[in-house]
Structure formats: C-alpha cells, structure tokens
Write a structure and sequence with these properties.
The complex is a heterodimer of chains A (256) and B (303). Chain A is 16% helix and 34% strand. Chain A is α/β, with parallel strands linked by helices and 256 residues long. In chain B, α3 runs parallel beside α4 and α6 packs across α8. The chains are: A alpha/beta (256), B alpha/beta (303). The structure holds flavin-adenine dinucleotide (FAD), flavin mononucleotide and FE2/S2 (inorganic) cluster.
Chain lengths: 256, 303
C-alpha cells in the first residue's frame, strides 16, 4: 500500500475523558485508503520535549465524510501537545503504515474484538469494516475503572459490547479473560489490542480453545516505515519490525 | 544553473547529499515519499559477512533533540545481500554504497571482497565505529594502530572507492583520520553515533536493553561540525560530514567546515523527504550567493 506524508487539517479535537481526546482530521483531497489496524505517524510540532513522531492507530475512517479519527490517551509530552491542537490547525501525518487486521479471508463468522484501555482504538474501524461485510462483531473491553472505557456508545452501534473493570465500577469486576461471556458463548476468532499482559492472556485463551487470534503490538518506534530496525519483536522467524511486518500479528507467529 | 556535482575519490556524485547507513533502509522504504534517484548516493544498512539478529528490544530511546539507538547491526549477511538486496539497490537510480561492518579484520575483508565483485556497488563505507556491537566495531576505530591495520587489509582486497567511517568516541579524531588516510582510504566520513545512555527513573532501569547506545540527531551536530572542521584540516582526502543534519543550512555549514559531501541520518525519521528538500535548498543557497558550483563552498569558512 502506498504511504503518504500529508499536511492534514484538524477538523475537531474532542475531549473524551480526563486523560483522553479524539482528534478528527480531514484533507482537501480524498484521504488515502487504509485498513483497520494500520496506524499513522503524527508529527508533534512546537514541543521541545519531543523529537520523534508519535505512532497512533486509525480509530475510525469515514470515507463519506473524508475524515480520519484518532483516539488518544494523554500519557506524556507528545500526546499532551497533540491534545492542544485546535480546529483548522495543520497536522503532518505519515500514513497508512503497517499491516492491519486480516478477517476477510479467514472465514470469520463470530469474531470477538477484545480491547484494553486506549487499545480499543483500532477496534472501532475494524468493527465497522466487519459490519460492512455482513459480519457481526462482539466487543469485550477492559479498563481499570469506568472512566477508562471510552466511546462505548459508538461501539454499541456496531455490535454487542461487554466490559470488565478492575474495580468493578462498570461491567463485570476483573480482567477481560474473567468475563462470563467467554464461558457462555463461542467465538471463532479473536482480534485484540491493548496492554501486552492482557493480549498475552487473550492469546492464551484463544490457543486453549483452538481459535485463531490476531494482536496489535505497540513497540517504540523511530521511523515507522521499516528503515531503522528499532521496533523489533522476536518471533519464530527471528526479529521482525512491528511497524512494517506488524503491528498486527497472528499469535502463532509470536514467542508468547 | 548551479552545479551540485562533487566527487569522493574517483566516485562522481550528482550532488553532495547522501543518506546515512542504518537510517534509510535499502532506499526503497522511502520511494513513496521522494524521488530516491535524485540523491547523491544511498548508503545502505551495515552489512556483515554472516547474518546478525542485533540486540534485544528496546533498542531506541528518545532524547532531547535526538535519539539513542542500539540496533546492533541487524542484517541478513553478505550472501543474502548479493542475492536479494543487490538487484534492488542497483535499480535505485543513484549510486548505492554499502556500509561494511565486522568483528574481525577477516570479516571486514571478506565483505569487502564480496562488494568488490559487484559492479553495481561503486564504493563501500567501512564502519569501524559502531558503538553497538560487543566485539570489533568501534574497537577498531578508537585506536590509530588498529584502524590502520583494518583499513590496510581492506585496501588490499578492495579496488573501488573506500570510505572509512570514523567514531567520535575518541580523544583526537584527526589521529584516526590520518591513520585511515595513510592506510589508503579514499575518504573519511564522520561522525558515527556518540556513545550515550538513558535511564528510566520510575523503573530504576536503563531504557535500552544494552544499557548504552549511540546518540544521533540535532543534539550531536555541534560536536560533528567541530570534528569535520578539525579532520578536514588534518587530511588531504575528502571528508563526508554526518551528524544532525536536518536542513540545507545544516548541510552547507558542514561543507563550509570542509566536507565534500554530507550524509543525512536521523532526520529521515522525522521527514522522510528531507534529503530531497536539502538538495533543493542547497541549490537555492548557491544561486543566492552567486556560486557556480557547490565545490566553491567546500572549506570556504572564513575564520
Ligand atoms: C502502532 C501503534 C499504535 C498506537 N496507537 C495508539 C492510539 O491509537 N492511541 C494512543 O493513545 N496511543 C497509541 N499508541 C501509543 C502512543 O504512540 C504513545 O502513547 C505515545 O507515543 C506516547 O507519547 P508521549 O510523548 O505522550 O509520551 P512518552 O513520554 O513518549 O511516553 C509516556 C510513557 O509511556 C511510555 N511509552 C511510550 N511509548 C511506549 C511504547 N510504545 N511502549 C511502551 N511504553 C511506552 C514511556 O516510557 C513513558 O513512561 C500506539 C503505539 C503504536 C506503536
Ligand atoms: C537507527 C540507526 C541505525 C544506524 N545504523 C548504522 C549502521 O548500520 N552503520 C553505520 O555506520 N552507522 C549507523 N548509524 C549511524 C548513522 O549512519 C549516522 O552516522 C549517525 O546517526 C549520525 O547522523 P545523524 O545525526 O544525521 O543521524 C545508525 C544510526 C541510527 C540512528
Ligand atoms: S520504527 Fe523504524 S523499523 Fe520500525
């Protein structure tokens, strides 16, 4: 897929929670075609505390409106600066990067999309594409507390949404892999993005039940295009670049 | 029209803007963003005789105005290069120079011999300055005797343009540059990364798996400029300037300090088309100042 470096126009920057925001960008020309699970490298301007671009997943891609949305958690100076962008500001972006989730040729009928924290971001775009293909996604989200579960309403437009919180303030108390849904229903494929311990637990569940599983890794990146070899994950076939060979991997390729 | 042509030994370059090893992949990674054929040359990733997996993740830490890396020369080895990468880099439309690395003199010579036999590779850059490998690498580049030894051995085996890449992690870089020159190098390139370190205070652990790594980016530019300036006065072979170049102005500063060409590294990560912009900006600078050729500004610093 051809990659582009574009000056995009910020359409809106919406406060979603105390530490999260949604950046909406658009362009005078049609935005490049992208797949769910692919990401962009955002240039952070005007910050003397950051140097490199910041990798952020494509949260939503609205072809009709020519809008891309990023769902971002403020964790440090780069995301802090991005949270200050205002409508009609310019945002330099490289996209689409990496390989996304693959579901079309997997004969997936009953997929479960498991997200943790801001790792739910790419699963909205994924769920939307699945629905457009006539596949109904089921979402299972985990967070520390209720306020970590973002944009639940959007997801529920696409499929059923289940949740766990560690403090029990929303959904069932515990981790995603503790949810009773996993006992009660059968799924034929799991797609997951979130903290590594969560994805490892999800991958373990999938392999115990003999179902396929794809996860999206979030390694530190410099170039984002496979040139610097900084973002490697050790796999059964040696070191691979998360930015170019991933960020989505089927878990049977990983050494988990 | 101003001429941007320059030369490194017998190697003629359409312009003095090259991309630095390890930051530009094999060139093809950047072809979506710019016309790679317009570059003076592409210097491809460090190549060793046998495949290397490199160091464990994490290999990168962001620092003020720069980054530390500890990639550790991950590459698939010389055989793989010949079969799979050589045919690709031959089609870049600009010269492809191979960065040659090793742990022993025999290793360096073996890779140099392979490259000598490839007609499409007009030059090699001998990396005696990698701070991220335990054996060899930088060890050869921090001592004039061992530098002279490895460069002499490679010189005997390699008949095209030989560039020797120098480490800044030394007391006096001009000593090493002179050793490379007397051993038969056609040019020296500098600097490789500066040895550095990053600490994660919250976790009370080093950020990099290797604890230390190589610093690059604008943070190293003043050090690199100083070393290029000193080296250009100390040797009579061409000097290639590297370190933190992000703009045409940066590149011109290096040429005024004595560089015959420049390499752009870390800046490619921030702007993947930066090197094309540097070429255009250099052209504009030369016209604005009434120069006919870029060669007129090499070492033209008035002190
Ligand atoms: C492919 C990919 C997709 C991503 N998608 C999203 C997304 O959709 N939304 C979102 O909010 N974030 C996403 N991230 C994470 C996001 O890139 C980082 O949170 C961001 O770069 C942090 O920048 P900062 O300057 O705010 O914080 P920094 O100061 O860089 O980091 C803050 C803290 O987080 C740690 N940290 C930062 N990046 C990483 C990492 N990659 N791995 C482990 N620890 C890290 C740092 O050590 C530090 O403690 C994604 C990352 C990748 C690689
Ligand atoms: C990720 C990374 C990988 C590198 N790999 C190599 C390498 O394989 N061989 C080499 O000689 N230099 C390597 N370098 C050093 C660069 O070529 C260059 O000398 C250095 O980064 C300084 O230039 P800059 O500040 O423009 O990046 C690497 C640098 C980076 C950042
Ligand atoms: S971030 Fe450079 S190779 Fe992945």
């Amino acid at each position: 897929m051809k990659k582009y470096q574009l000056d995009l126009c910020v359409r809106d920057n919406i406060h979603i929670a105390e530490d999260a925001f949604m950046l909406e960008v658009t362009h005078s020309e049609p935005l490049p075609e992208s797949e769910p699970g692919q990401f962009a490298e955002l240039l952070v301007e005007g910050s003397n505390k950051t140097f490199l671009r910041r990798p952020i997943s494509i949260h939503d891609y609205d072809r009709d409106g020519n809008i891309i949305r990023f769902l971002i958690r403020r964790v440090g100076p780069g995301t802090e600066k991005l949270s200050e962008l205002k409508s009609s500001d310019t945002l330099n972006v490289i996209l689409p990067l990496g390989n996304g989730f693959v579901f079309r040729n997997q004969s997936v009928q009953r997929p479960l999309l498991v997200g943790g924290g801001v790792g739910i971001a790419p699963l909205l775009f994924l769920g939307r594409e699945m629905k457009a293909c006539g596949i109904e996604p089921t979402f299972l989200f985990g967070g520390r507390e209720k306020c970590n579960l973002l944009r639940m309403g959007e997801y529920s437009n696409l499929g059923r949404v289940f949740a766990t919180t560690e403090d029990g303030s929303f959904g069932q108390k515990g981790f995603v892999t503790d949810h009773s849904l996993l006992e009660e229903e059968q799924f034929d494929y799991i797609f997951s993005c979130g903290p590594t311990p969560m994805m490892k637990a999800v991958a373990g569940f999938a392999s115990e039940h003999g179902i396929g599983c794809q996860v999206s890794l979030e390694h530190r990146m410099a170039c984002g295009i496979g040139a610097c070899l900084c973002c490697v994950e050790e796999t059964k076939s040696g070191n691979v670049c998360v930015c170019k060979d991933g960020p989505v991997f089927t878990t049977d390729k990983l050494l988990w | 029209m101003v001429s941007l042509e320059t030369s490194i030994g017998s190697l003629k370059l359409a312009n003095p803007v090259l991309t630095a090893s390890g930051t530009f992949g094999y060139g093809t990674e950047y072809s979506d963003f710019m016309d790679v054929s317009k570059l003076g040359a592409v210097i491809v990733k460090g190549t060793t005789i046998k495949p290397r997996e490199g160091n464990p993740y994490p290999r990168m830490a962001e620092t003020p105005s720069g980054m530390l890396n500890a990639v550790g020369l991950q590459n698939k080895g010389a055989d793989y290069f010949v079969k799979n990468i050589y045919p690709v880099v031959c089609k870049l439309g600009c010269p492809a120079i191979v960065n040659v690395s090793g742990s022993t003199i025999e290793d360096y010579v073996a890779v140099a011999e392979v490259m000598d036999s490839l007609d499409g590779i007009p030059a090699i850059e001998l990396n005696i300055s990698c701070p991220n490998v335990r054996q060899g690498g930088m060890a050869f580049g921090v001592n004039p005797c061992s530098a002279e030894e490895v460069v002499s051995a490679v010189r005997k085996a390699y008949h095209k343009t030989l560039i020797v890449k120098l480490s800044p992690n030394v007391t006096d870089i001009t000593e090493i540059a002179r050793a490379a020159e007397s051993a038969g190098a056609d040019a020296v390139s500098l600097i490789n990364t500066l040895l550095g370190m990053a600490v994660d205070a919250e976790r009370r652990r080093p950020v990099l798996s290797t604890v230390t790594g190589g610093l690059s980016g604008p943070a190293v530019k003043p050090v690199a400029l100083r070393m290029v300036w000193q080296t250009a006065k100390a040797v009579s072979i061409p000097v290639i300037g590297i370190g933190g170049i992000c703009s045409a102005t940066d590149a011109i500063e290096f040429m005024l300090a004595g560089a015959s060409a420049v390499e752009i590294g870390t800046a490619n990560f921030i702007d993947p088309s930066v090197s094309a912009k540097v070429i255009d900006g250099m052209q504009a600078y030369l016209s604005r100042h009434g120069f006919n050729s870029v060669k007129e500004i090499i070492g033209a610093l008035e002190v």
